[in-house]
């Protein structure tokens, strides 16, 4: 099996990426690439791998959804009491990884994570489907449960209690913004000679360099 996996490969022959052509602001550059991903109708183009670190230095990664792009960072939402929420409370740094295989592109984002305001979280929460808002209340994310039946029973009870009402924002749920100090854009190229353009924040300015593949 391991030999079969080792022989799995393909060459890349997509667009090129040059330091001379990218935007000086990496978030603006990301918006260009993200729009191309949307225009290409890539399934779940908003999905990204969020990597966090525990207080003991143990890394953990999971896929979450991008819910906003601000001039200073990337917004996502979760349960504050989840594993990732606890990680970010103790170690307020994280990374995001986007991979759009149809375009042979990857974007890495690293930086500090902060909670957004409760008003901003509430504004987004209201846009979620009603059942998803109920789900946020009944899911004590990352905690053990005896069965799926137990979860669905809690859901049914809460839904009955709030039937026909607005579902309020739980105080344990909300948004984060990751403010990057480093971003890397990767474009797959033939013969594994990929293009890698790295942005690093130096003071208030972004330093742009090309990295060896």
Q: Indicate the CATH architecture of the largest domain.
A: Roll
Instruction: Specify the CATH class of the largest domain.
Output: Mainly Beta
Mean pLDDT: 94
- The number of distinct structural domains comes to 2
- Number of E-state strands: 9
Compute the separation of the termini in Å.
Answer: 28 Å
Helical/strand content category: alpha+beta
Instruction: Pick out the low-confidence regions.
Output: none
Which fold name is given in CATH as the topology of the largest domain?
Pnp Oxidase, Chain A
Shape descriptor reads: globular
Going by CATH, the homologous superfamily of the largest domain would be Electron Transport, Fmn-binding Protein, Chain A
Specify the number of helices: 6
Strand-and-helix sequence, N→C? HHEEEEHEEHHHEEE
User: How large is the radius of gyration?
Assistant: 20 Å
Helix content: 25-40%
**Main β-sheet description:** 9 strands, antiparallel
Strand content: 25-35%
What is this structure's SSE topology?
Elements: H1 2-6, H2 26-39, E1 47-53, E2 59-65, E3 68-70, E4 73-79, H3 83-90, E5 93-100, E6 105-115, H4 118-125, H5 130-138, H6 148-162, E7 173-187, E8 195-202, E9 205-211
Antiparallel strand pairs: 1-2, 1-5, 3-4, 4-7, 5-6, 6-7, 7-8, 8-9
Helix pairs in contact: 5-6
Describe what this molecule looks like in 3D.
With 213 residues, the protein is α+β, with helices and mostly antiparallel strands. It folds into two domains: 10-126 and 170-211, Pnp Oxidase, Chain A, CATH 2.30.110.10; 130-165, no CATH class. It is 28% helix and 34% strand. The chain is built from six helices and nine strands. A hairpin with a 4-residue loop joins strand 5 (93-100) and strand 6 (105-115). Helix 5 packs across helix 6. The model has no long low-confidence stretch (mean pLDDT 94).
